[in-house]
Backbone:
């Protein structure tokens, strides 16, 4: 009889510890869970009819990439090209973690160091019933706020690469392990 009580007690203790372990794992998963209203929009806009794109990613992993350029219009006759896809849950969690790591909501709305004629980037993040937009020109690797902004922007590009060949995540990611790829000079248009 004592052996049976001892076995039941051991079983109860094991079940108790298993429940505690499951609960702590569930709490950790909830802390890293992407909020149901999470949405991030990344914009690359070029002045004077250059290449423009907008990527929107929602909490369910849905991705919509919209590209606009003179070349697209000349090749297709359409004003824009749309591509839809999905992120994996892991990719979505990675992107959400990058937003949290950058403390995105504490960035000022404008951190631009560039000129008016340069392309600009915009990130809009919505989560937990709040939305925050940040605008910047090209990355300035010496500016801490720009670095935080472009770490998130580069993560979007890693998850949804631009169809524009000149724009790669590693070119704008301010992390020390990434180095910009040299871009060949653009050919100038012939004068008329």
Residues:
């Amino acid at each position: 009889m004592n052996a049976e009580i001892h076995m039941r007690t051991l079983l109860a203790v094991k079940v108790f510890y298993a429940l505690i372990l499951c609960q702590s794992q569930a709490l950790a998963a909830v802390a890293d869970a992407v909020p149901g209203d999470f949405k991030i929009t990344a914009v690359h806009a070029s002045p004077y009819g250059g290449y423009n794109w907008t990527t929107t990613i929602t909490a369910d992993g849905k991705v919509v990439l919209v590209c606009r350029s003179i070349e697209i219009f000349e090749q297709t006759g359409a004003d824009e090209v749309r591509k839809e896809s999905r992120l994996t849950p892991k990719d979505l969690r990675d992107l959400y973690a990058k937003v949290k790591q950058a403390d995105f909501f504490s960035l000022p709305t404008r951190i631009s160091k560039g000129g008016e004629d340069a392309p600009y980037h915009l990130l809009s993040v919505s989560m937990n019933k709040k939305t925050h937009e940040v605008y910047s020109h090209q990355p300035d690797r010496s500016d801490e706020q720009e670095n935080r902004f472009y770490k998130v922007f580069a993560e979007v590009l890693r998850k949804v690469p631009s169809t524009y060949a000149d724009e790669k995540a590693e070119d704008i990611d301010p992390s020390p392990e990434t180095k910009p790829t040299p871009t060949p000079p653009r050919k100038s248009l012939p004068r008329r």
Summary: Residues 2-32 form the longest helix (31 residues).
